[in-house]
Structure prediction request, 139 residues.
Amino acid sequence: MEMKKSIEKRRMGVILTLLSLGLMVFIFEYGKIEQWNTVLQISGILSIIVFIASLIPTFFKTGLWKFIHKPLKELDEREIVLTSKSLRYAYSIFTVVVLSLLLILAITTLQIDVVLVAALILFAHLLPASVIAWTEKVI
Prediction:
């Protein structure tokens, strides 16, 4: 895996990717409630472009996506420890985020829809790699 990018650039990529993912969901939900208009459509398209433009260099070109999705038998001991630690942190964060979201949905009249579910699945896949990108200086 190539982690030649500085840790600051990787952190910025993680922030940009996750914020644009959240923004896509927010824009979709807001557009559904308030009726789509040109500004919302352009904002939605821009958030998708920013998401893809930050996802590719941060997760795919660095090899983080591939690394975090490797079978255990292909990893050495150090990589297993690193993957295990990142999974533990990522799914702790994921649990808190999803339970908070479910609480908000229970309190409000909003409903879970396909875009939110797809974003949460993608978020779950991005989190372990995000933890590694955020914490590790060199891999």
Summary: Residues 77-107 form the longest helix (31 residues). The chain has one domain: 7-135.
